[in-house]
Amino acid sequence: MSASDGEGAAMTLELTPGTTCVANGRVIQIDGADSLTHMRVRDVATGAVSSVAIARIEALPKTATASSFEGIPAAEWKRCCDLAKDLTPLNSRTTVARSELEKLAKRHGISVRQLQRARATFRKDPRASALARSPGGRPLGLNQLDPEVDALIKHVIAKHYLRRERPSKEYVVARARSLARRLKLKPPSRSAVLTRIAREDGYQADRARLGCKAAKQRWEARTGKLEAERPLDLLEIDHTPADVLVLSDDRLTVIGRPWVTVAIDVATRCVMGMYISMDPPSAVSVSLCVEHTVLPKSENEGDPGIWPMYGKPKKILVDNGKDFRSMALQRGCQDHGIDLAWRPVRTPHYGAHIERLIGTLMQIAHLLPGTTFSNIRDKGDYDSAGKARLTLDEFRQWMTQKVCRTYHTRRHSSLGVPPLVAWERGLQDEQGQMVPPSLPAAPLKFRMDFLPYVMRPVRRTGITFGASRYWHPDLSPLIRQDEVMVRYDPRSPGAVWVRRPDGMLVTAPAIAGRAVGEPGSRRALDAEAQARMDAMTDEGFEKTDQIEAAAQAQTRQARHPSRRPRTQRPTPRSAAACAAAVNPTDLSALPPKTPSARAPIPVEEWT
């Protein structure tokens, strides 16, 4: 097999074992012949052995060539363009005078021989990039290590580097050099080991070191794109704990980080709804966020036009959390024609829009006093609890202002316009007229269908729920009946709603308890009172433990006589001592008399 170089001299490629060449874009070494048409070869980079057709084997180029003009440096590209400009007129000519070639070579600072080579190349491929000079150095993938040492390095990498324990590269270098010394081989250089480690970079290596999930997150192709053409075509909902600490209403206690539930419109990137609470994510927070999304915002009553987004979405995309699979949410969406869909399991990138929104909102929250930042490294020695200043209600108001007057009014990188402008444009028809979203026909019914509920009996004293009692005369027919579904709004405990069997919706206001602020209703204790209660509780535990321990010991002693303590017996005394101890005048102390025994009668025995 032969090839020609730029000078036309013949070059022969000998397909003998050990010859390095190229096949299918890979650097290979010939192991031997498989047949008259195929050779058995070994991939230099991976060590894999395969059979390759002889027609696909090419000589190894002496220097690497630039594959395209993007990789050509600016100075070299200018030289190529100038040379191509002068060589273009010569392509149509068969012969060129040497004097002309010498003049042209002098202009470009090269020899005539070099110019003739460039002209031959340019005639075959009349592109400026074909004239680029290739950088020197060894061809990519050329292996000059001893095959045994090369195999040793690959063995060490497979055994000690591609592991979940993720040892360092320097550890692998030390292991490879140590193994080579023990096998009486020349230890490989550090760069040789690191070069082969770099060749392992990819999905399989990350899967072995980081796990399947992390490897997919880094290498799996995601060519698809979640799109929505018009507002309300697709919404995403998710939760996050806010990166800030808030105070109790009396501003004396830090009550923790509030949870934020938000809904984003994919087409316009607008925040359609938001619910903030100290309670962890639940079906309640999801339902209230959906309600806030669909119905016109109550925030507009005090600040007209601040949050103009509303409307019933066609589809809602959520994750697979238990809070997103509640019966109330599913049936509410089905009843009102909303397609509720769940992301595939363990695929967080399916909710990329809501994840980016949450990241943006939390970045804004880092401006607040009392922020916890996004990680402990950013937090440093910042005293989040000591710096906290906002109550939960103030945080709600602050976040509303930031969403409506910062996020909605700032240019979005994906849209090219602010979300508010995208919303307004998305609601325009072909004539440019604004077409507002349609409202639910029965807003109160829609609200009831998404509110959380509990099952409670109706007694003569009313409905008891949340340390409060609720009553309305229209509930009288339900007394002593089965438990009824009681809808409630955690944000407004002043009333609950009950639908009677005849379809009538009864609004029962609070008549007693915490909901009406009665004395004796549940209140938070201050730190001093709580400490006093705790001390009394602890003392009570100690006293009761002592009583129980004493009772257990006495009961055990009573039920097991062998475990009773032994009493000391009196020592025997002499008769004189006993007589001396008895008062002679006290006859009662004397022992009672007993009849004396008769003397035995002597009897003569005859034999």
From TrEMBL:
PROSITE patterns found in the cross-reference section: INTEGRASE
Integrase catalytic domain boundaries: 227-427
Pfam families (UniProt xref): Mu-transpos_C
Superkingdom of the organism of origin: Bacteria
Chain intervals with Low complexity compositional bias: 568-581
Region entry Disordered, spans: 550-607
Annotated protein name in UniProt: Integrase catalytic domain-containing protein
Source organism of the structure: Arenimonas caeni
